[in-house]
Amino acid sequence: MTRRAKLAAAAVLAALAAAALLLAGSGSRPTEAETYARLGIDPAPAAGAVLAEGEAWQPAADERGYALAAENGSFRLRIRPKDGSIEVEDRRSGYSWSSSPSREELALEKVKGLPLANLQSPFVLTLVRTEGKDQTIRESLNSLSKGMRLQLLRTADGVEVRYSFPDRKLGFAVRYALTDAGLKASIPAAGLVEQGGYAVFSLDLLPFFGAATAAEDGYLFVPDGPGGLIRFQTGRAGQSKGYAHQVYGAELARTSSWTRDAQLREDIAYPAFGLKRGDHAFVAVLTEGEGAAVIAATPPGVKSSRYSVHSSQLYREEYLYRMSRLAAPTKAVQKQRLDVDREVEYRFLNGGEADYAGMAASYRDWLIAEARLGEPLKPAEHVPLQLQIMGGNYEKAFGRIRYVAATTFGQAAGMMRSLREKGVAAARIVYYGWQNRGDYDTEKRFPIEPALGGEDAARSFLADMEALGTKVDFYEDFLWVDEASGASGKNDAVRAIDGTAFTDEGWFLAKPAFSAAAAADTVDRLRELGASGIVYGGLGDTIFNDYEADGIRSRAFTAEVYGGMLDYARRQLGSASVKRGNAYALGHVDAILELPSDSSHDFMIDETVPFYPIALHGYVPYSFGPANLRDDDVREFLRAIEYGALPSFFVTHDDSRKLKETPSDFLYSSRFDKWEERIAQEYARFDELAGVLALRIVGHQKLGPERYETTYEDGTRVVVDYAAGDYAIEKGGGA
To answer: Residue 13 in contact with residue 43, Cβ under 8 Å?
Structure first.
């Protein structure tokens, strides 16, 4: 089902919400079906792709071994009947992209044996045994493997290649189709065959498509933080094992516990990668099954003498399990396959568009075509300040739970009025810690915490802010549930691969239906108070499979429920936002807080670039980390200017020391009266860019070692000089 079709179906289901509300309001917990109907979610899995029909195609090959499989106004697709290798000719430029190096290039290759065979194959299939003692040992197959059989079938816009390995009783299909922008490569779940003692672990799709040597001019693009470049450099060979990370982060439920503090790197937030060779480039977008894929980039000296980037499709996870509490953990591979269609769309670029800014623009075009960005932002006179305010949180003292108030509703109103007097012309408030006893007993959110003034004060605060023209969102996390609540981890927690409830130090990760029901109830109560919106914690950065006994609820299903939660809040309150903003949330959110702004500083990454901000700007407003919590104040301020972000601060009325024994101890410097002047001053600098808030970023380049230029569609140029610690704005013709 297409994205637009799903949106239409959700609108129909939303019409049933009123009836479902009556059922849900009976006092008992609503069923999954009632919850999904209430939110307008269709829980039925989307129909998978069907295999091609018809007789096998046996084309005659040319002198190079290729046959023409399809063509349109911009591209020609050729395939080698012998092994399924492909070549895409860009008719606009005459340049050709191949799944493997040419014969002449292979003659210069230094690797031998299996690595050389992999280099010539359009796939690398990794398999594991399903019987015996060594079920975690992995083996590899490719199109040159002994006994491989291949069948070709024509399709309307391309070709389907069916591979089989009779001795392993394994098989799969790859479908190639030309588009107006390039090529789609897909692996239908219906084509996977496992009938013997082997199972598919992963499948690298087009692992060496467009692979380049270190001597060429270009780079690999990987989705590290906002974006990362790996430049072709001869000196890197043999110094790194490469870049390989799962889209949206590693699967949480590999084991029954997880430590959030162990996450030391930026998870991949958007499913795209790319490659530039001289005046030609491609950006590849994982359009289906992206949550079960790894994006991998490899330098020379690891698998070949070339730079390459590709997607590795995961069909099973390796995990640790214990036979008993006293036994050491043992490695195992999950039995049930992650059975979803996979698809990657390659979009080809030439000339001035063949760089990371052009890649980001092409990704944006895809998002727009798939209805994932919504309407463009409307021009605004002023940039809105993202003002996060901590109401307070609980602490354990003398054997009891005590709520510590740091900002009452009345104090929050006074803070905003003071900022208005100092020139902050537009703002949006996100209010934290409003729940009864804060983060303690997370299922008891109402009545609103009395120490903050209770519901009467909340209503008064919201009315005052509305009169001031300031929207107020409430923050809440519906994913993690604490042991103090009445909820049952046994019944309501996500299941890890080993079947156990997924927990973390007294908290459990709730099933999507549980989170959705709690969110809908909370949104309805907030609407009664007059809240303008909600900021969901967790929805923008946490996604998982739920390994139920009767089948796996996939990451795609989790993302669909998240989208329903966001859409319900938008319908009821007017606005829904998330933190970090993983791509599955796009099309459902009005703003993103704490968008990734820095890389993970991997050895492989040469330069951090604003790929994701370029794709979003002008459609989804975003901010980076709060300014009062920066590690490097000047550089992070300038990066926000360079990347087109909104100003953001996280404050309290009282001293943050009051919260040091609470879960909100991360606010080490937040006292408003100490930051008030700084907020006003920094806001004024951001507000100089109000004219480009609703515009697309059309260009970005490095001018020197510490100088970068961002160009907007009206011609406005922003040049940031990190060495000088300043920036300059050159207004465009439309400013």
So the answer is: no
Q: Output the CA–CA distances (angstroms, integers) from residue 357 to 221, 248, 368, 711, in the order listed.
A: 11, 22, 16, 10
Token duo for residue 245? 């990370």
Non-local (6+) Cβ contacts of 720 within 8 A are 638, 639, 641, 642, 707, 708, 709, 710, 727
Angle at 453 (CA atoms; ends 451, 457), nearest 5 degrees:
165
DSSP secondary structure letters along 365-426: HHHHHTT-S-SPPPP-SSPPEEEEEE-EEEEEETTEEEEEES--HHHHHHHHHHHHHTT---
Nearest residue to 598 (alpha-carbon basis) of 630, 568, 572, 575: 630
Cα separation, 541 vs 583, in Å, equals: 9
What pLDDT score was predicted for residue 258?
47
Nearest to 320 by CA among 311, 310, 333: 333
Compute how many other C-beta atoms are within 10 angstroms of the C-beta atom of residue 181. 20
Helix count and strand count (H, E) for the chain: 14, 41
**pLDDT tens digits for 9-41?**
444 444 444 444 444 444 578 999 999 999 999
Per-residue pLDDT, 486? 82
305-340, pLDDT tens digit by residue? 899 999 999 999 888 777 766 777 788 888 899 999
Contacts of 449 (CB under 8 A, 6+ apart): 391, 392, 403, 405, 433, 434, 435, 436, 437, 438
Contact assessment for residue 282 and residue 182, using Cβ atoms and an 8 Å cutoff: yes
Contact 48, 573 (CB under 8 A): no
Determine the Cα–Cα distance for residues 652 and 665; give it in Å rounded to an integer.
12
Residues in the chain: 735
Output DSSP code: residue 608.
E
Cα torsion 166, 167, 169, 174: sign: negative
677 to 381, 421, 422, 672: CA distances (angstroms)? 22, 11, 8, 9
Coil vs helix vs strand at 520: helix
Give dist(CA 469, CA 616) in Å, integer: 25
Q: Specify the pairing of strand 471-477 against strand 427-432.
A: parallel
pLDDT at residue number 602: 79
Rounded Cα distance, 309 and 272, in Å: 11
- Measured CA to CA, the distance from residue 460 to residue 47 in angstroms comes to 49
Q: Binning pLDDT at 50, 70 and 90, where does residue 131 land?
A: confident
CA atoms of 115 and 140, how far apart (whole Å): 10
β strands within 80-148, DSSP E: 86-90, 96-98, 123-129, 138-141
**Angle CA 687–692–696, to nearest 5:** 145
Contacts of 488 (CB under 8 A, 6+ apart): none
End-to-end CA separation in angstroms for the chain:
42
Coil, helix or strand at residue 467: helix
- Cα–Cα distances (Å) from 308 to 93, 224, 305, 623, in that order, read 22, 16, 10, 33
Q: Which residue has the tokens 């059975």?
A: 339
Per-residue model confidence (pLDDT) at position 449: 98
CA distances from 264 to 6, 261, 667 (A): 35, 7, 19
The string over 415-447, giving b where at least 16 C-beta atoms fall within 10 Å of a residue's C-beta and e elsewhere, is bbeebbeeebbbbbbbbbbbbbbbbbbbbebee
